[in-house]
Amino acid sequence: MDTASHLSVIVDLSPTQWYLSSKTADANPYPLSLDTFFSQLFVFLNSHIACKDENTLTVYGALPGRSILLYSSTGEAKADQDVVADANTYRPFNVLDSTIMKSLADYVQLLGVSETETPIGLVGALTKSLCYINRISMISAQNEQHVGLDPRILVLSVSPDQSSSYIPIMNSIFSAQKLKVTVDVCKIYGPNSVFLQQAAHLTGGSYVHLDHPNALLQYLTMSFLPPPGIRQLLSVPTQDKIDFRAACFCHKRIVDIGFVCSVCLSIFCQPVPVCSTCRTKFPIKTLQRLNAARPMPVASMDPSAPSLPSSTSIRVNAANGNGVRLNGAQR
Q1: Backbone phi, then psi, for 17, in 5-degree steps?
Q2: 121 and which of 67, 91, 148, 319 could share a cystine (Cβ 3.0–4.6 Å)?
Q3: Is the dihedral of CA 125, 131, 132, 134 positive or negative?
Q4: Going from the N-terminus, what domains does the chain have, and what CATH number goes with each?
Q5: How far is the first Cα of the chain from the last one, in angstroms, to the nearest whole number?
Q6: Which residues pair with 235 in a beta bridge?
Q7: Any idea what DSSP says for residue 305?
Q8: Could you report the per-residue pLDDT of 32-65, keeping only the tens digit for each?
Q9: Are 256 and 299 in contact (CB under 8 A)?
Q10: Cα separations (Å) of 24 from 13, 93, 214?
């Protein structure tokens, strides 16, 4: 671990999903409450800081309709200077824990009852994390005392996919690839996330769906504490199956079979005479042939429903009549 490591943690703070996660049910035999989650998360964050003096940390909260910076080791999120001293706790650890809880409490008080059902600001948190990493990477590269950072993002998710966020999430994934940022995903509650699976796969990260959420600390320590620089020496979890489905650009629905514009590669759930993205017009005969060639009606999936086995490849009919798989293999 000669190279310093930067860790950006994005915490999904959906009130509805955390309420469901804390309840015991047949589909959730190992409940995890929000209080228990934070107590285990703090141990993991403190472990990252303790691994190396030069390690940096930021924590973002994805709240309904917004994303906030809860803590930054560089001082952007002001640390609580009035932390009560504890003889049994290392002061930097105590400051980290207290700052996150105080920042979170201040923002939660501003949430109205009607806002609790608003989709969480995951895209905003991802964008802020990438901008922060880009800035500190440039500063580190200019500093002769540091060779560079080993940046990564860890997403702690409990919410299902939001089909309307497909395009901005994919843009964030491509930006992470360009910045060489590893995106790890820990799915604590709910069905597998199609978009976050793709984020972890495309950036070389790990996607872990917890079978026992109440053992969160063990998963975090064994799977996500080692930085990317030394993971090649360890046996980290990998994805055996990846769901490559996409969301259509017209109705923002996750589709199994779609139609791709041959000019701009926009995806639609049914043949359209004019592409809404690049305004390309398609011949009527082509549309008739595509409609006749459909083996089944266009299937859409509710984001809250369990995802289909990812081993099933997605067939996508292009506007020029050629079938294309989303993973790049030609039919």
Answers
A1: -70, -35
A2: 67
A3: positive
A4: 5-230 (3.40.50.410), 245-295 (no CATH)
A5: 45
A6: none
A7: S
A8: 999 999 999 999 999 999 988 888 999 999 999 8
A9: yes
A10: 19, 32, 12
